[in-house]
Specification:
The chain is an alpha+beta fold. The protein contains nine helices and 13 strands. It folds into two domains: 141 residues, Aminopeptidase (3-Layer(aba) Sandwich), CATH 3.40.630.30; 168 residues, Aminopeptidase (3-Layer(aba) Sandwich). The chain is globular.
C-alpha cells in the first residue's frame, strides 16, 4: 500500500489524536493524552494556515506520521523562531517517513519566517522529547544541536500538605484570572511579557494570540491567579505583579502553563503564594495531580521555587535548534510560497 501525504484538517483530528497518544505512550509519556477537539483547535490558532503549516501521512484510514509548524509572532534579539513538531508511528519507522517530514518542515519554516520576518536570521526549534530518542538522532543527523533542557515536574495532590509550604500573602491581594475582564487579561499579558523579557527562549505574546490562549477550552480560570500591586496609582493594565495561568489537558491533572513575576515585585514570595493557592484549590476540587515544565537554565531559579512548593522532578526533555540565514538553501526549498506539493503519493 502507498503512503498518502496531505495537510491535516479538523476532520482528521481523531486520527491525529490516536497517533499522538500512541507516540506519547511509545516514548514513555504515559501521563499525556491528546484530545481530538484540542488538536482541532490548534488548526485555528492565530497565524496558522493548516493547508500550509501541517502535513499528515496516511496508510489507508490511519495517520502514520505528521509534521506541524508554528512561527513566533515576534523576534527575540533579532532572531525569528520556527517551532517544529512531528512524529512517526512506531510500526512505520525506518522507512524514511521522519526524513520526509523534516524535508517538508524545514523549507516551509524558512519560507514562512521570511514572509513574516524579512531578513531576520532563522532559528529552527525542535522538541525531541527525552535525550537519546529517535527524534534526537534524526535532529543531530540534520545539523541540529541540543540547545535547552526542560524539567517536567509533578505534585501528588492527595499527599500534598499546603500548610507545610509557607509563603507570604500578596500585599495587594489576589484574584482568579477572569478572561472575561479584558483589562485584567491585558494586565496579565503585559506582566508576562515583562517577566520573560530576559529569557532568551521566550517571545512576546501579542494580544491576538494571548486572547486565543485564554479562550481555549483547556484554560482553567478558576485555577489561575493574579496578584496586584498595592500601589493604587498604577493603571489596572500595569498593576499586575505576579500571575499563574493553568489549564487541563489530562482528566484529573491540572497543568500550570505560565508563572511569572515582574522585576519590581520579585523576592516577595508572590509566585509561591499564588501557586500554593492554586494547588489548594485544585486539591479541593478533586484534582489528583498538578504538573508543569520549566527550562532547566531558567535564570529566575524557577525550578527551585516549584520544588519548595512541593513539585518533584519526573523527567528531562531536550530541545534541538539550528540556525539558518534568510532564504537559506534548505533541501527542497523553492523560494516561492506554496511551491511544494503536499498532496503526494509515496510508495513504500
Amino acid at each position: 500500500m502507498s503512503i498518502v501525504w496531505k495537510p491535516i484538517q479538523s476532520s482528521h483530528a481523531t486520527a491525529w489524536a490516536e497517533l499522538s497518544n500512541l507516540l506519547a505512550a511509545a516514548e514513555g509519556y504515559d501521563d499525556e493524552h491528546y484530545d481530538p477537539a484540542e488538536l482541532a483547535a490548534e488548526l485555528e490558532e492565530p497565524g496558522v494556515e493548516y493547508a500550509l503549516d501541517t502535513l499528515g501521512a496516511w496508510d489507508g484510514p490511519t495517520m502514520v506520521a505528521y509534521g506541524q509548524l508554528r512561527v513566533a509572532a515576534e523576534c527575540r534579539d533579532g532572531v525569528a523562531t520556527a517551532f517544529l513538531t512531528g512524529g512517526v508511528h512506531p510500526a512505520f519507522r525506518r522507512r524514511g517517513l521522519g526524513r520526509r517530514v523534516m524535508d517538508w518542515l524545514e523549507p516551509r519554516a524558512a519560507e514562512l519566517v521570511c514572509d513574516r520576518h524579512p531578513d531576520a536570521p532563522i532559528r529552527l526549534s525542535l522538541w525531541a522529547g527525552t535525550p537519546g530518542s529517535g527524534t534526537s538522532r534524526l535532529a543531530e543527523g540534520r545539523g541540529f544541536e541540543p540547545a535547552r533542557y526542560f524539567l517536567d515536574l509533578r505534585v501528588d495532590l492527595a499527599s500534598w500538605d499546603g500548610s507545610a509550604f509557607r509563603s507570604r500573602r500578596p500585599t495587594g491581594g489576589s484574584v482568579p484570572l477572569d478572561a472575561g475582564d479584558p483589562v485584567l487579561a491585558e494586565g496579565v499579558r503585559r506582566a508576562h511579557n515583562e517577566s520573560f523579557a530576559e529569557h532568551g527562549a521566550s517571545t512576546e505574546r501579542d494580544p491576538e494570540r494571548w486572547a486565543a490562549q485564554l479562550a481555549a477550552p483547556t484554560f482553567r480560570p478558576l485555577f489561575s491567579r493574579v496578584a496586584y500591586s498595592p500601589e493604587s496609582t498604577l493603571p489596572k493594565e500595569d498593576a499586575v505583579d505576579s500571575y499563574v495561568v493553568s489549564g487541563e489537558y489530562e482528566p484529573g491533572e491540572l497543568y500550570v502553563c505560565l508563572v511569572g513575576t515582574r522585576q519590581r515585585a520579585r523576592r516577595r514570595g508572590l509566585a509561591s503564594a499564588l501557586l500554593r493557592d492554586v494547588l489548594h484549590a485544585a486539591k479541593t476540587a478533586g484534582y489528583r495531580t498538578a504538573a508543569l515544565s520549566v527550562d532547566a537554565e531558567n535564570l529566575s531559579g524557577a525550578a527551585r521555587l516549584y520544588e519548595r512548593v512541593g513539585f518533584r522532578r519526573m523527567r528531562t526533555d531536550v530541545v534541538y535548534e539550528k540556525m539558518l540565514t534568510p532564504f537559506a538553501k534548505v533541501p527542497g526549498y523553492a523560494g516561492e510560497r506554496g511551491s511544494r506539493q503536499q498532496d503526494a503519493v509515496v510508495g513504500h
